[in-house]
Amino acid sequence: MEEGRLDSTEPPQEFRVYLPPCYDEKPDQRYPVLYLLHGQTYTDDQWIRLGVVEVTDDLILSGEASPFIIVFPDDRYWNLPPGPGFGQRLVEALIPYIDSAYRTLPDRSHRAIGGMSRGAGWSLRLGLTHSDMFGSVGLHSLAVLQKDASDIRDWLRETPPSFRPRLFMDVGDNDPELEMAQRVEAQFNEFGLAHEWHLYSGAHTEEYWEAHVEEYIRWYVEGWN
Predict the structure, then answer these.
(1) Which pTM value belongs to this model?
(2) How many domains does the chain divide into?
(3) Secondary element (H or E) of residue 159
(4) What sign results for the dihedral spanned by CA atoms 180, 182, 183, 187?
(5) In which domain, by residue range, is 141 found?
(6) Which CATH number is 77's domain given?
(7) What number of CA atoms fall less than 13 Å from residue 217's CA on the CB side?
(8) Burial group, residue 165, by CB count within 10 angstroms (0-12, 13-18, 19+)
């Protein structure tokens, strides 16, 4: 696991990077990239604590998944003035940096974004407003960002059919965000956006997300197979 920081942004954008076990051994190989966004009040280690690195290592080493890179951007300023600029920092600074510093496959078909809670809200916004950048979008316990609810139909209307991403949604049946997630899913159906929808037993908790980490990773990997 590598830790990084971009001092070119204000505030500096911190992040962590997972590299597959074979990264150093195969210097000519390039890899898909998954951007995983954490939830509100947490930092860039949340997905790591919930076991995503162990799951990914197991899938790659067993041959069930082709190797890929994971980037964990930090959104710790969510409740401070720099908070709303996170998406811009990710798209305009972090992704270009990752594509220049690591051996990525720098195209939308090999770039995915997903998140839990607030991270899912960012994934929804960025996945639809920058559909030319992301081929897959994962929305885990979606918490729609403030004021975005009224914009989703416009985003869907403006997304060219050829740039509609693969999309996965899941939420627990005891999640306070369930009603909003169902409203968003209904809009996907309204616009004919193909997607997976899963309503599971559970709440808006780390225990819920940890229980589904392997399912999430397997879904992202399917988009590259």
Answers:
(1) 0.97
(2) 1
(3) none
(4) positive
(5) 2-222
(6) 3.40.50.1820
(7) 26
(8) buried
| Amino acid at residue number 181 | A
Number of H helices, E strands in the chain: 8, 8
Give, for all 225 residues of the chain, the pLDDT tens digit. Answer: 899 999 999 999 999 999 999 899 999 999 999 999 999 989 999 999 999 999 999 999 999 999 999 999 999 888 888 788 999 999 999 999 999 999 999 999 999 999 999 999 999 999 999 999 999 999 999 999 988 999 999 999 999 989 999 999 999 999 999 999 999 999 999 999 999 999 999 999 999 999 999 999 999 999 998
Tracing tokens 């316990």 back to the chain, one arrives at 141
11: cis peptide before it, omega within 30°? yes
Is residue 123 within 8 Å of 133, Cβ to Cβ?
no
Q: Which two tokens stand for residue 210?
A: 């940890």
The residues, ordered by sequence, that sit 6+ positions from 150 with a Cβ below 8 Å of its Cβ are none
